[in-house]
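protien #1 (seq + structre)
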Amino acid sequence: MAHNDEIQSTISVETIQPTERDALLPQIPDPTNSENQPNPVQRRRANIQFVALCWTLFLAGWNDGTTGPLLPRIQKVYGVDFTLVSLLFVFACIGFLIGALSNIVLDPRYGFGKVIVLGTVFQVIGYSIEATAPPFPVFILGYAINGLGMALQDAQANGFVASLRDDPETKMGILHAAYGAGALCSPIVATQFAQLPHWSFHYLTSCGVAFLNLILLIAVFRLKTQDECLAQIGLPPAEEGDTETSQFRQVFSLKAVHLLAFFILLAVGVEVTIGAGWTVTYIINVRGGGPSSGYISSGFYAGLMIGRVALLWVNRKIGERRALFIYSFLCIGLQLVVWLVPSLVVGAVAICIIGILQGPMYPIAMNHAGRILPRWLLTGSIGWIAGCGQAGSALLPFITGAVASKSGIEVLQPLLVAMMVFMTFIWAIVPNSVQKGRQIDVCS
């Protein structure tokens, strides 16, 4: 009897006219419908939100561009060798990893607005410690606190932009061009402070930039969750996922997350090792550069900033995945030029071009994460990926410094070439297709 009722129900549904049947089905909003498009007030608010996040990434670039030009002065002031001064990168790495892990727990509990502001508070504290030029153990502790704050902000900013619906690829490129702008400005300022008696006052300047960021984030986002902030600009919240399993466990069960995290670790590590790590020391010691060699670091980051915007059309034309392979191979070739051609000018130009080609890599990887990872895990996943990137910005310069302390700074170039090759290999095995289901690329 129940079977007959099912048949009758099926027949009755099929005999309904299409227009009537459509009225009975759940209605899915049509994004092309003008009624679903943000109004002028929402678009203006969206622009303000985006500018605030760009300033956050400007601060991230400022932070990463600071250390390289100051390294020789820090070594002289504290009387430490390559290995000991590399503890700056180790403690920053520890802070980044703690921040990346904490973000996965803090984000679902407290939300976007509170977590990103908390990250800025940590950064203000870290810079305040460093500005006083305290004893070396306390100085490197400031780097750890700063790293914790950077990881929280980086995770939230990238996760927010990756959740946008209106051309997120371009916005991600512009967001990280702001990072390049910060990394361009910071070495210019740091190079000047490195030659002054009060060299640590550079960190006081950094504290001012971070404090401005704190005020801006509170004023714009008002400690609201990401869904609340998206609603303010006319966007729907992210869909719900598996609520029975902790977000921490879900994120770490995704193989794609770990591959992207490892790729970003290498990409950012290479980027910071070249632009803000040991290249300035290499140019001074091996190529005979003077005290103004820190400006080469600014040249690299100028290229990074330009590449993230100027190459957007290339990414669209040939596809982001293919474009990243091309950029990687060209970077390897140019790094060989820096290594094998004993010319200060040629090396400086090659480093700037590497910056242009390296620029799109990070935003391309973040865009790829937004395409292949579940929406409800995106912020947590990107937090871990970005945190690993920040860890790479500390870990690889530390490894370089430790090796250089035994074998000389000349080892910098072969190490960079090896890192670039390995980075390209990891990108080749990152999943390329949109995965179905709640669990994708689950680790066995």
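ok now protien #2
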Amino acid sequence: MVERFFEVNRISFSINDLPAEGTAHNKALHLTVKCERYYVKRVMVDGGSGVDICPLSTFQRMEIGTERIRPNNVCVRAFDVIKRDTIGEIYLILTIGHVDFKVTFQVLDMDTSYNFLLGRSWIHASGAVPSTLYKMVKFRHKDQAIMVHGEDKQSIYRDPSVPCLEAREGSENIVY
């Protein structure tokens, strides 16, 4: 009986889950998510980050009112090992797959290669299992296994502009 319980609630990856290029890739795990009335590309999932990050440029591009930022005294150490004070924090609802998550982001004014960063805070709260090898995230929601594939094509961006896309009401398709 116990074995059956664990079998049902197990999240695993198989050779069939590998992307087309197999193990011969060295790409970060990026997702496309829905936030507010936008679809947002280049959402990095990184288990090495202790906080969830929203760059100020993403925030501004999405035209979210600054009154929603709550001041705080959080200081983070970025990838370049420099400590930075946050502007504050903001709660945003992200739809990942078909599941809504309330995420507390730390807002930072810095150039990044991502539009949002989902770190251990989101990973642990959602019970997600991200895999850079398989380029996907799996989690359970209402006794259902949810699998969200990473973006297919990635490149390095020097342009700090944010590819946020206006979402169509009533449509779950990404508008290009």
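The helical segments are 2-8, 56-61, 120-126.
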